Structures are given as C-alpha cells and as structure tokens.
Structures
1.
Amino acid sequence: MTSSRIVLLAAAVGMAVPVIAFAQSKAPAKSQKVVSQQVKRGEYLVTISGCNDCHTPLKMGPSGPEPDMSRMLSGHPEDMQLPPAPGPTGPWIGHAAATLTAWAGPWGVSYTANLTPDPETGVLRDFTEQQFIQAMRTGKHQGQGRPILPPMPWPWFAKMTDQDLKAIYAYLRQIPPIRNKVPDPIIATQ
Amino acid sequence: MDGAGVPAQWDVRKARAGHWALIVGVAFAVMALLGGAAFARRPLVRPAPELLQETGLYADFGRHQVDPRHLEFSPQYPLWSDGAVKKRWISLPANTAVNGSNPDAWTFPVGTRFWKEFSFAGRRIETRFMELQGDGTWLYATYAWNDDQTEARRVSERGKPKAFDFGGGRSHFIPSLNDCKSCHQGHPAEVLGFSALQLSPARDPNAIHGEPAPGVDLNYLVGKKLLKRFPKALIEKPPVIGAATPVERTVLGYLHGNCGHCHNDAGSLKNLGLSVRHGQGRARSGAERAFATAVGQPVKGHVPGLAPEAKLRIEAQHPERSVLLQRMSSRNPIVQMPPVASVVPDEEAIRLVTQWIRDLDPPVPPAEASGKAAQRK
C-alpha cells in the first residue's frame, strides 16, 4: 500500500469515528426522551386518576388525613393489623380502614396492592406491559387469572387507550421500590 | 333479395348487435355498481344477532333441528364445564377450507362459525357462538335459553349469573365477554377444541369425560378437503401424547384441554414458564415440556390462599403439596383453576391427577443428577 493510500484511509477513519460516535450519542438521547415523555404522561395519569387514593396509605397530618408519600403506591401496610371487618348492614354496604387501603364489603376484605417495582412484594413484578393492559381491560390478574377485587375501578380504566395504559405501566415500573407484603384478600363465604 | 339489399341488412344486424352489446354492457355495469355498493356497505364487523336462530345454527329452530350442513365435532379432551352435556358444531363458508399448515395454530376462513351448546339436567341452558369477521377478529356471543326451550336470547357482555342452580348456593354463570376472551385469547390459535390433537383419530380411550366421536376427525376433514396444507406425517401418524403410561397420557391430555389454552409457550402468559399445551409433530417433546415446566418447578410469584407448604407446581409423590392440584381442587375465586367458567371441582380429574402425582418418580438428588450428567458426557 502506498503512503498516499494510507493517509487517505487514516483520514476516512478519522472522519468516520466522530460521525458514528455523534450518531450513537444522539440515538439513545432520543429514545430516552420518548421514554421520559411516556413516564411523565404516566405520572400525570396516575395522579389525576386517583391511584394514590387507595394505593398510598393515609396518615394523620396536622390538618387531618393525608397521603403518606414516603409509602407512595405501596398498598396496604403489612404491619397494620386490623380486627375483623364488620359485616355489610343495610345501606352501609362497605367499610374502609382509616388508611383507605383495606376495604370490606359483600365480597369479603380486599387490601390494595403494592404497585411499586419491588422485586419480591410488588404486584406487577410478573406482569408484562401487555398483561397490565389486559388486567385493566378485563379485571383479571395478568389479564387472564383471578379476579381483581372491589373497589378497584378497573371498568373505568378499561376505557383508557393503550397508550395511556402503557404510560401508566412505564411510570409504575420506575417509581421507588418499597418492600411491603400486602396480606392476602379474605373471600366472603356464602 | 337483390345485391343492393345485402349491405343494408348487414348494417341492420350490426346496429342490432351494437344495441344488444350496449344493453348487456349497461346491465353488467349496473350489476357491478350494485354489487360494489353492496360489498362496500357490508361491514367487516357486525354485532352478534339478538336471537340464536339468527346465527344460522338451525334449519328448523322450532324443532331444534340443526342445519345438516354444519359439522358436529367432539374434542377428545373436553373442557370441564361443571358436568354440562355439550354439543359443538362448525360451519365453513362454501368452497373454503381450514389452513392446517401450522398444525399448532390452524387458521380459518372469514365467515367460519362455531357453536357450543350447554345442557344441564336434560335442558339447554346456553349456546356460545363465535364467528370470524372480515377484519380477522372473532365475534363472541352467548345465548341463554328460556325455560320452555322456545327462545335463546343474547346475554349482556357482562354475562348472566344463576343460569342453572346446582344447589348448595352454587349456580352456573354464563360467561362474560371478558371471560370468553381470557381463555380463547390465551394462545394464537384462539379456537379451542378444534385442533390437530383434539381431532386426532387416535383418540385416548381413557380421556376424562371423553365423548363419542361424531365422525369428524382429521381423516374426515382432509378427505373432504375441508382441511388443507395439513402435514401428511400427521395423517400417517396421528397426534398422540407420548406418555410413559396410559394414566399419564390421560392426565397430560386433560391438562392440555383444560389448562393449555392459557398455560403455553406462545400466549400472553408465556412468561410464567408453565406449558402444558402439546405441540404437534413432536408430541413426545410436548410431554417433556409439560414435565419440565410443571414437575418440581417452584410457583412463580405469590398465589393467595395456598397452604404454606405448597411451593412446587407439582411435587412428585406429594399431591397434597402440589399447587396445581390444590388450585384445580379449589373453588375459592382467588385460588381456583381454571379461574373462570366453573364453580364445581372436577372430582374425576382430581382423583386421576392425585394418583398420577403419587406415582411419579421421586426427584433425583442434585448430586446424583450431576453425576449422571457427568456419566452421559
């Protein structure tokens, strides 16, 4: 190879490296931007849809009950022991614990799920994005399994678009994980 | 006739021919326009009819005479439906056939219809209906029969409770649309019960709740050219679950028919890693896959309501500690399997699965297993 060809090759490589590096640096940035927008959309939807109302325990603050954001979306606290729920009587068909994370009614007693991405206690740990969407559409665990109990208002979430449900899933998968093993529900005997 | 008259006659004939050509042409154009307009108006997707007879099942609804053009069939491993007596029919559009090139997921021509009739105590209670629509999706509907069996009306998408009283506070629930889809959409095939293994002429004589075959099997379908591009090898050697014993064949067949539509390697629950659906053309490997993903395998995640000692899907020789058996024996809504469409446990299946688990070989200790692996090397 002549010296002129070597110089030409070196110049080509010298020009190509920064161009490729620049392109690679831009690609993830764009992808991250899309993900970030999706997560922000999910945060917005979770906030306005009232998910925190039941999945974040209430604590008593100076002005009355307020959501305990240190346990954001972690469901019914595992260390909260409750006495047996009163049975449904007359028009007072349901009862709620002070945290709004435990609910009793004709179906039995249900405890709100830990929606954080804790690998051992988060309810979504085995959910794919598609299963999350199907769960909201059908009211069934992972879209095909056991029923999601009241008062989870899944029939309204079922009306959301796929894009909105994907955004909620993306947001829930990146919030701070909180280890909290929610008790099993109690099914009313007939 | 003189010479001058010939061209004149020729002109008249030409004029008449042109006239007729014009009429025929206009007629064709009108037909094409009307046909095109009708086709354009024909919806790809339509709502299910309000009454069962409007789906085309019957030739004479008053006498409950099914249209003889429909094919009655019976899967060899039927789904447990709380003891219902079931009848099933398929209708293919004229001059069409099922595409069997993928023996694990047949594809059906647009317009294919299925019906499944459920009877308890000698009375029709409900008939389920599926039709493949122009957009490639299946239409689902359920029809509830009235007490005097003179009408079957479509039920709401939310289903219908208390359709038949079993006693003891239990009753038959006509499934909701979500219930239908949760099972049928658990595998790309979407049609359950009309498949290669289920219609194999080599039927399992011991199948739990097995029904007599009405004659529509793989041989019939291929012979009548209603099933095309189906692998010849599976006609020459019909699908059979490769199992060590007849009991094992029957148990694995039961799990295929009752659990495999959700628990398989191709559907949305594949991430659970439990596959009891048997692929065709490699039936024996299908049995091995069921073993590999169920026997000795820990339950993934937490299942509420289970005994604390139950940690494996199937624990060889210990049916009392096998989650699969616990869940199929339960009718607690958050524990039971299948999760929908049954309020009465299948006692016959529970007995056989219990026996099979008890007779399974004990697990090989890890040290011995690694030694054997080393020996094989």
2.
Amino acid sequence: MELVPLAKALAIGLGAIGPGIGLGIIGGKAVEALGRNPEVGGQVRTLMILGMAFTEAVAIYALVISLIIN
Amino acid sequence: MHISLKPEVLFNLGPIPFTNSLLTSLIAALLLCISAIVVGKNYKRLPSGLQHVFEMVYEMFENLATDALGKDGRKFTPFAATLFLFILVNNWLGIVPGVGSIGFYHKAETAEHAAVVTEKIASVTTSVNGDSFATPAAAEGEALVFTPLFRGGNADLNMTFALALISMVVIHASAIRSAGLGHHLAHFKNPLEIVSELGKILSYSFRLFGNVFAGEVLLTAMASIIAIVTNNFSNTLFALPGGLVAVPFYLFELFVGFIQAFVFAVLTLSFMSVFYKTESSHAH
C-alpha cells in the first residue's frame, strides 16, 4: 500500500484542525469586540489580522511539511 | 501534478545561480523604481493617479508606525512602506498569467538530471495547455526540460528568508541604537529569548513563502481540476472551463497577497516596538 499520499493528506489535514479552530475564535471575538465597541474598529482590525497571521502560520507549517513529503 | 519547491536556475553568473524568482523580483524592484521616479517627477500638491496610491500607503504606515513606536515611528515609515510595496508587487506579479507558464525547453545536461527535472516541471503548463507536459518530441531520444522564465519572487524560500533576515537586523539594530547595546542584551538573559528570536525569522519566512507558494499550487490545482477529476489530460477543451473555475481563486490570491504584505510590514513594526525604547519610556 502506498502510504505517501496518506501521509501528505494527514499532515495538512490534522495540521489544519488547530489553526481552523483558532481562526474561528479570533474572528468571532473580533466581531464581538467590534459589536461592543465600534469606535475602536481600526485597532481591532489590525490586531485581528496580526493574530490571524500568527495562527495561520501554524497551518502553513503543516502545508510546507505536506508538500515536502515525498 | 508535479510541483517544484525550488526555483529553477536560468543561468549562472559566475558562482551565483540566476534563478527565475530572482528575475521576477528584479522586475518588481524595477517597476517600483520607475513608478517612484514617475511620481516624484510629476509631484503635485493635489495628488492624482499613482501619487494617490503612494501617499495612501505612506500615510497608512505612518499611522501604524506612530501607533507602535510613538513619534519615532516616522523614522521607520519608509522602511515598513518599502517592505509592504516590494512584497505586494512581488505577490501580485506572481499571479500574473504567464508567470510559471512562459518558459523555454532545453536539453537536460545529464540523463539522471533530466529524470529529476522532468519530474519537477512546473505543473502550470499542464493547466494552461490542457494536456500534461506537452514536451516537444525530442530529437534522438534526448529529454527536453521545461524551465519557466518567471516564478513569483516570494514563492522562493531564499527570498522570504532574506526579507526576514533584513527585517530582524533592522529591528535589533534600531533597538540597540535607541537603548544601547548593554540594555538591549539584558533582554536575552534567558536563552529561551534567543530561541524565540530565531523562531521569528523562521516563522516570518515560512509564513510568506507558504502563503504565496500554496496560492500558486491552489491556482494550478483549480485550473486543472477538471482534467484531474476526469483523469483526462489530453483534452484541450478543458482549458477554458478550467480557467473560469480559477477566476474566483485569482481574486482570493489578490487579497492574500495584499494581506501577507501588510502582515509582514506590520509585524516588523510591532516586533520593533517590543525592544525599541521610545522617548516616553525613557522617563520612567
């Protein structure tokens, strides 16, 4: 049985679970904060994008790993 | 689908290999230089056209930098805006149709080298041509190798790693200049801090590389999805619907290219603010 495709799929599939949950939390909390305090929209947006960049980086590591498995 | 993680070498400049991603990033730099000269020459009090764009970017980063670093932020605005513009132009040049599909065929130097390289043929050609690896019939059985002339500058880890190193050097140099060497080194009593600084370089470079490279893979996959699903790589009629499927993803990649350039520049500013000693923090 060929295990390499499975390894690739598992690397990105499992690696995307955590960042997916994290991105959902960040986006949800940012919207919540905006709803409570609309006048700090600009700051919340910048912080949200920064937080998302950090979280997304984890998924990107998994992606890089899945691309270099061969 | 074969995807090459490494950029292809076009020719060697002495000991330095000249790669296709280097060519694209040089074009990006050239475009920026020309537009900056054009804007500077035709400077008007009431901005119009391209001058608007440059002023908008500059103003955006002036606000971000002064938020992060106080009034010293103005000194670092040009650096952050340059990073942003360079990465943005590189990301957007990378998704211009033709990047990755325009190239040339050449004879492989050695037999085993040919085997390696044909495996790494940029799969973008498959999506554009609609059939897999339309290699022209090689004379006397020699394998012809396809080398794309352009490759997105940030789809090359060397480039993003260099950008990460530049921004980390600027971060630490500015911190040392503002707080003094001894004060700056006091941050690193705990060896874990040094590890986290090294981790920043890696996460910087992998984030940008991963996003841009994954974007290219996504576009390729979407453009050739009909051929992949039906497992029919020889039907050229699939090229048009395949291209249409990819259109929303091109829009998405425009967005991702912008966000990643923004994130890179803003992260530089906010990491700088961790170590940078502003006038107000001198007081206490």
